[in-house]
């Protein structure tokens, strides 16, 4: 004998007590199946009209075959597949990095590399002055209300004690952000820790553009916060035949010197492996009222998080956008902090009212979002980071033997109209493949998230096969009518 409580929609509890028999077990299993079926139906879009229309609906959604890819290639190579195979550093870059570490007077150890990697990954954004002021006022009010402090006869002493108590509390609860100063030693350590992972993340972003727009052949590129120059190497590997100018901007002179040595094979007098690379220590501020030189591709990889305030990040993003001719690529760590930072930059560009005299074209999101609406990951009850993963072969040090995974967040903004981009749902989590069905977590063009369970019987063989061969970060080539089909069980409208 046991008791089970089932809570109804009216928050009433019905208590059932029955004997554990085979018939009761069958009834319980049937009830569980009905509840599970109801959850699946809600997950698949069979929901009340108040919910937004999802992207994958049984019997309605179908494969987007405008390019007639089903006749030209197998499902395993459908046009939404964007995942790169395991990325490897160019041999010249890997050799130069190993040579610089061998010749360095400051030995780099595995423990140091792991410590810097962990520190960079766990880093939060600096707390804004307004937020600090708000916390201080709250703590002061709380201390006064709870009479935590012993009131002194002298009011000046009481204020001093209150001030000290608030400062102590702020130091304990506030993240202490510090600006990193990259000297020669730290630059070399950063190269050992982040050169290969940064190259993998940026390569994946470049591949997104190349795979979807193979006709795009950029001639100029600017890299803000260029660091060791991994963006230059990744761009050369992707568009080396068309790129003629690479502008690398970094505030650290030591980083610029290291990046130049890597280009020259680890020495100061070698021939650069990538021609047309120029280095600058400061980002030129473009006047808003006049035009400025634009670059076909502008990149900021793991650099916006190094700026001390939200206002500084906004100024940099606006400057980078004015210098963007076609694509602005922003990459950060695949954490909540990194994703939040990118969403702020995305909204700043999309909602920007200023028009550049040189290029008045508006901006839209090329990737990863299939829409310009608020990010559903950020507006969820439990916000999640929209991140992706790219496998890569690390620099072959003694402790780097096995392939690794780089987890990162990115946003690619483009000039033009959103109609120019393919708006298919984006797969935002690893695809779960089960017998005769596939679980896909999607970010849909209507700005909503969807957990779709796709089967061949309910969704069609082509869509099922495309979903089964897709991976985290791919696009699912599916289209759905803008209006849901009428449901026979709909409630009549209220009069």
UniProtKB/TrEMBL annotation:
Q: Does the keyword Methyltransferase apply?
A: yes
For this protein, the record's InterPro entries field holds: Mt_RNA_Methyltransferase, Ribosomal_Rsm22-like, SAM-dependent_MTases_sf
A Pfam entry, by short name: Rsm22
Query: Which one of the record's GO molecular function terms can you name?
Result: structural constituent of ribosome
One GO location term (cellular component): mitochondrial small ribosomal subunit
**Gene Ontology biological-process entries:** methylation; ribosomal small subunit biogenesis; translation
Q: Where does the record place it?
A: Mitochondrion matrix
Where on the tree of life does the source sit, at the highest rank? Eukaryota
UniProtKB keywords? 4Fe-4S, Iron, Iron-sulfur, Metal-binding, Methyltransferase, Mitochondrion, S-adenosyl-L-methionine, Transferase, Transit peptide
Q: How does it assemble?
A: Associates with the mitochondrial ribosome (mitoribosome).
What does this protein's UniProt record list under function? Mitochondrial ribosome (mitoribosome) assembly factor. Binds at the interface of the head and body domains of the mitochondrial small ribosomal subunit (mt-SSU), occluding the mRNA channel and preventing compaction of the head domain towards the body. Probable inactive methyltransferase: retains the characteristic folding and ability to bind S-adenosyl-L-methionine, but it probably lost its methyltransferase activity.
**Family as reported in the entry's similarity comment:** Belongs to the methyltransferase superfamily. Rsm22 family.
Protein name per UniProt: Ribosome assembly protein METTL17, mitochondrial
